[in-house]
Structure formats: structure tokens, C-alpha cells
Amino acid sequence: MPEARGPAGLNGEAHTRYAPGTPCWVSLMVHGLTATQEFYGELFGWEFHPGPQQLGPYVKALLDGREVAGIGQLPPDRHLPVAWTPYLASDDVDTTAETVRLSGGTIGVGPLDADEAGRLAIGSDPAGAVFGIWQAADHLGTDITGVHGTPAWNELLTFESAGVVKFYETVFGYRRETVGSDDVDYVTLHVADRPVAGVHGLGNALPRDRGPHWMTYFEVGDADEAAARVVGLGGQVLAPAHDSAHGRVATVTDPEGARFALIQEPA
């Protein structure tokens, strides 16, 4: 995982409009909306306000009044995996959605309007990993980064990077850069010469119960303490906090099983 930073908003500063292809928002659909708010509120200090009505029961998570992420409630009859989903910025969601289809991906939701906030679609790449597409209007996306409880990085975990990276290059115009040694299949996706996301090919090590999926990293002040708090709040630790080249990282799940990572920047 390279340097986990967004296009602006370092150290709690507000973001401007996101360049196309940049992860600009993360959203989670769950079965128990109230319980999930309690979990993330305790973990990250989030407060919640109602979101666009077109999305059903949906709330936006805020830190100091700035929008960080979204959480919505799944319909009772929808038995979908509970997972954090990154939204990638687009200047024209309808055109991007059509390019997804023409490039071997699928569009499962939309494109549709979300009040005055913007226009969205939800799709999946050829390997099955789900992502969102966001065309901003009033809502630009995540409004703050660089502090505890904010998204820091998004990473695609898949079988192998080569084929799926071609898909994302075609749809969003990324430039790829191979990272690491020959025995590590890792590629960063760049917008305007800056890394915005990673693709990690895991081969047979990819969790069979999840398949290809995007993983969101959230910044925390203390990864060990945050991981312990996850357990105390009813979640699980999948990979205990450990040191990496980019900070101390733990992989965890919330009580409904949504996977995410905690990252503590190096001192």
C-alpha cells in the first residue's frame, strides 16, 4: 500500500472537487442501520445526519460537521454481502457506466439521481468486485481526510492484477505503476501522476468466502487500540496490527462482517 492520501484535505482540511477516477466516497449497506451507527460512532467518533431519500434509509457520517462516509440499510429481502464500497469520481456517470458495460463489467444499480447531491451508479468489474461511480453536484464526496476516522486508501483485492487493471484503465483512464518485487502482484492506479488506489493480486490466497473485493483503509491514531476497540464493540480482528512500510495496519470486521483496515501513520 503506497502513501495513503487523497487529492486534498491533508490534516483535516476540506476537499475540493475530485478528479475523475479518484475514490471520492465510501458507503456501506447493512441490515441493522441503528446498531451499525453505534459501532462506527464509538470506533471513529462519527455523528450521523439523514442522507438522500432516494437511497432509502441512509445516513451520512460526519466528523466535526464534515462528511466522511455513508451507511444505508439493505431491504429485508436482499441478501447481499455487507461490504464497504468505494465510489470513483466521474464527470459523466452515464458515459462511465456504459464504458463499464462495454469493457466487460456490469452495472447493477443506476445510473440514478440522489436528490441534489449528485448522480450515481453501482457496478462490478469483470472479476466481480463491486464499486460505485459518483458524479458530484452538491455533494462532492468525502470532505475531510488525514485525521482519525477518515478514509485513507482503497485497495482492490483480486485474483491477479493484469486483466482487471486493464478494465480500470479503460474505464477511468488510470496510469498503472507496478510496486514491489517479482513475487508480489501489486499495482497502483494513478491520476495525474499521483497514486489514488491499489490493486493486489492474491491468487489462491484470496478469501474464498469473499472473492474479489475492494478494501477501505481508515486512519486511526493507534491501530492496536482501535483493533481492541473493534472487538469490544462486537467486531472481529482478521489480521492483528502489524508494522508495514506505510504504517501500522490491522484488518478487522464490523459486527455484520464488513471488512475494513485500520492504518496508523508512522511516527
Automatic annotation (TrEMBL):
It holds the Pfam family Glyoxalase_6. It comes from the Bacteria. InterPro entries: Anthracycline_SecMetBiosynth, Glyas_Bleomycin-R_OHBP_Dase, Glyoxalase_6, VOC_core. Residues 22-136, 150-265 form the VOC domain. SUPFAM superfamilies: Glyoxalase/Bleomycin resistance protein/Dihydroxybiphenyl dioxygenase. Gene3D superfamilies: 2,3-Dihydroxybiphenyl 1,2-Dioxygenase, domain 1. This is VOC family protein.
